[in-house]
């Protein structure tokens, strides 16, 4: 990333020789939107650099994760639950190099490569509230796609309380979150049944799950591969299967959804990732990745097309990320995961 520029703010009276010294404010480029809408409302603007509060760190962003929450927020679908003061920044996950440390932080040093969760991560610099060191075997693009899948996986598995030897059904098992849930559950020695489309059946088998398709007849298919029943179920996709999951488990308290807010009407639970320290889950995920026991699916590399003349805007395209070491830093801003969202996003970074 280019070195951020500085702006001089003169004193109120504007006279030379005034006792007030010019205030130097460092600015950076960041993605913001001033109105709700599609990807076209995103603009790259100059904003004041953020700085960490106690217990936080700041990173020079090398890659930012793109999650469903971002496009739902941008479109205004969550305005009743997450009201914003526009213009607003965007982004919650990122990976990069630590360049500032808040008071009280003792587990990290300037120059460390980390990934984590914070605010307004579609920017040159971002403050993280939860983080973990990057495994040396992964790229920044891969690591930027880790926070939401790993935090969600550990949270909902702990909520549903799956024990070794028990059978877990995962509805929507082949996506970014679902695939990590499968891997963590398998690592915990649970038997996992995963639902996915026909094209992803072999992928679930490679992850260690028993694969089946979703849609009509789900109950009979699951009972066919698990005659002894299902101990717990997780709804990742929010596809309206809560009644079926409750029937399969026989206990609505053993059904947890992250996407269907009608679940409580059936006695099931809804789990969200708002609040709380995510660092323990991120460190646990990093350990699994370093040990070769897990990876996050759906990580893509977004490189800008040639700049459009007269607009200062770049179009983005998706491609598989090419590995690079921590000391070989990319100069492009590369959001990770969720190919559809990435391919829509206009960039000028």
Strand order of the largest sheet: 11-10-9-12-13-14
Rg from C-alpha positions? 22 Å
Straight-line distance between termini: 9 Å
Shape: globular
* Fraction of residues in helix: 10-25%
Global mean pLDDT:
81
Annotation, overall tally of beta strands:
16
Beta-strand fraction estimate = 25-35%
Main sheet summary: 6 strands, parallel
- Based on secondary structure, the structural category is alpha/beta
The oligomeric state of the chains shown is single chain
- What's the order of the H and E elements? EEEEHEEEEHHEHEHEHEHEEHEEH
Could you explain how this protein is built, in words?
- The chain is α/β, with parallel strands linked by helices.
- 23% of the residues lie in helices and 25% in strands.
- A hairpin with an 8-residue loop joins strand 2 and strand 3 (42-48).
- The radius of gyration is 22 Å and the shape is globular.
- It starts with 5 loop residues before the first strand and ends in a 5-residue tail after the last helix.
């Amino acid at each position: 990333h280019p070195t951020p520029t500085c702006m001089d703010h003169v004193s109120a009276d504007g006279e030379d020789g005034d006792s007030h010294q010019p205030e130097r404010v460092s600015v950076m480029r960041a993605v913001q939107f001033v109105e709700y809408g599609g990807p076209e409302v995103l603009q790259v603007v100059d904003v004041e650099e953020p700085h960490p509060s106690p217990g936080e760190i700041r990173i020079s962003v090398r890659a930012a994760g793109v999650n469903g929450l971002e496009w739902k927020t941008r479109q205004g679908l969550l305005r009743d639950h997450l009201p914003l003061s526009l213009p607003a920044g965007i982004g919650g996950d990122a990976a990069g190099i630590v360049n500032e440390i808040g008071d009280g932080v003792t587990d990290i040093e300037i120059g460390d490569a980390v990934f984590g969760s914070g605010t307004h991560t579609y920017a040159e610099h971002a403050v993280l509230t939860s983080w973990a060191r990057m495994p040396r075997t992964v790229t920044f693009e891969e690591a930027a796609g880790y926070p939401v899948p790993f935090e969600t996986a550990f949270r909902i598995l702990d909520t549903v309380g799956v024990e070794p030897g028990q059978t877990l059904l995962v509805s929507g098992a082949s996506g970014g979150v679902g695939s990590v849930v499968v891997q963590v559950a398998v690592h915990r020695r649970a038997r996992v049944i995963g639902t996915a489309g026909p094209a992803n059946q072999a992928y679930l088998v490679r992850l260690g799950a028993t694969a089946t398709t979703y849609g009509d007849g789900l109950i009979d298919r699951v009972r066919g591969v698990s005659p002894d029943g299902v101990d717990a179920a997780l709804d990742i996709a929010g596809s309206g299967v809560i009644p079926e999951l409750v029937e399969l488990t026989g206990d609505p308290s053993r059904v947890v959804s992250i996407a269907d807010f009608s679940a409580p009407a059936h006695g099931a639970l809804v789990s969200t990732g708002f609040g709380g320290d995510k660092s323990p889950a991120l460190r646990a995920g990093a350990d699994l990745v370093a040990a070769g026991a897990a990876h996050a699916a759906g990580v893509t590399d977004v490189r800008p097309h040639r700049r459009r003349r007269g607009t200062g805007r770049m179009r983005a395209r998706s491609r598989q990320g090419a590995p690079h070491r921590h000391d070989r830093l990319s100069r492009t801003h590369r959001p990770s995961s969720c190919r559809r969202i990435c391919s829509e996003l206009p960039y000028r970074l």
